Amino acid sequence: MEDIFELLNHAKMDLEEFENQKLSDYESKIAKKQILKEVRKMENSKKTWKKTVAAAACVCVILGMGTVSVAAGWLPVPDSIKTIFRINTDDELEVAGKMGTSTDIVAEDNGYKISAEGIIGDGKNIGIAFKIEKSDGSTLLDNGEVPEAVDFYPINDSDDSWSHGITGNVDGSNNANCIEYYIAFTYRDSVEDHVFISLEDMQLRAGDAQTDISGTWEFDIPFETQDLFVNLAKGQEFEYGNSKGTMDELMISPIGYSVRVTTADPLSDSDFIDMPMEIHLKNGDVVELCGGCGPEDNDDGTWSWRSDGVYGNMILLDNMESVVIGDTEFAMR
Fold first, then answer.
1. Bridge partners, residue 164, by sequence
2. Average pLDDT over residues 137-164
3. Which of 110, 193, 267, 288 has its CA 20 to 30 A from that of 43?
4. How far is the C-alpha of 325 from the C-alpha of 332, rounded, in Å?
């Protein structure tokens, strides 16, 4: 087998397909580790060495200049995901790197290209960032005006298994040629090994004007989550006001939460509906949990009351002291 440096000399690189992003110290370490991992893998596989060396050579060359051009998956998460969850510190970036990844999945319809840029999740809560452009590279709006917002009607997953979701535009992402958009939602059960999303009938807004674009953009995103959450529920009896039930789930992660209470009381009159929920941080701050909530009929004489959602920013588990649901405090473990 040829020497590794000879292989690098043979590698052909096209830097146009990569996006330049400034790396933090943590991300630089991750990229370097990934390069070494891929090179070692290359040494053990004659079938894939050309592709592997080309990627490694590209990253090695540009790392020396202070920036890195990376294919999807090399960085833990793209800038759009960092913006959505306000991920800034090295500790937050390290956690985000375990929970998310860059992606490069593109769908086109009716002259518009939408790219799934990245995904982050904890097993139940998921966040996905999209970049919206014209397929020919021209301005999104025919008059060249900068769109202020974008939306879709409807948004679907493969089996309608969301229990709560929010959408919005990534702050500061809009210009005449593109705008970034995100979806954050909670599954009723859990994510398996992929997330399927279908975006339909786009609406771009600028001022009082709106432009409607018919189309369907579908994404099947492979994704394996790590269990970076704690479940503070132990099946204990739980009550708030005049309502009683069993605490089945109190899942807390760095990006979101999921609460489930089973009760035999009719939920239409339940005190659970307006029950306050908070995360108490070690520094004394209190984060109110404001997600979606609602009842579910279990068809056995009981009901499940649920509340779930994502936070406005990443909260590290190490920074949490306890979770307060109603009048009951659940200490972090």
1. 186
2. 79
3. 193
4. 13
Residues 185-214 as b or e (16 or more Cβ within 10 Å = b):
bbbbeebeeebebbbeebebebeeeebebe
Task: Tell me how far apart the alpha carbons of residues 119 and 307 are, in angstroms, rounded to a whole number.
Answer: 22
SS3 (DSSP) at 42: helix
Angle of helix 25-43 relative to helix 90-99, nearest 10 degrees? 40
Task: State the residue for tokens 């052909």.
Answer: 12
Measured from the Cβ of residue 183, the count of other Cβ atoms closer than 10 Å reads: 22
Give which of 328, 315, 313, 107 is closest to 230, Cα–Cα. Answer: 315
- Over residues 265-319, the pLDDT tens digits come to 776 667 787 889 999 999 999 999 987 777 777 888 888 888 888 988 999 999 9
Structure-model confidence comparison of residues 229 and 186, the more confident one: 229
d(CA 120, CA 298): 30
- Spatial distance between the Cα atoms of 23 and 6, rounded to a whole number of angstroms: 28
Lowest mean pLDDT among 11-25, 130-144, 253-267, 298-312: 11-25
Report which of 99, 125, 127, 128 is spatially closest to residue 115, judged by C-alpha positions: 128
Looking up tokens 């500790």 gives 91
Task: Please confirm whether the linkage preceding 266 is cis (ω < 30° from 0).
Answer: no
DSSP H/E element including 91: helix 90-99
Kindly write down the DSSP assignment for every residue of 231-259, as one continuous string.
E---S-EEEETTEEEEEEEEEE-SSEEEE
The model scores a pTM over 0.85:
no
Q: How confident is the model at residue 219 (pLDDT cuts 50, 70, 90)?
A: very high
CA distances, 263 to each of 35, 90, 305 (Å) = 53, 42, 8
pLDDT of residue 296: 77
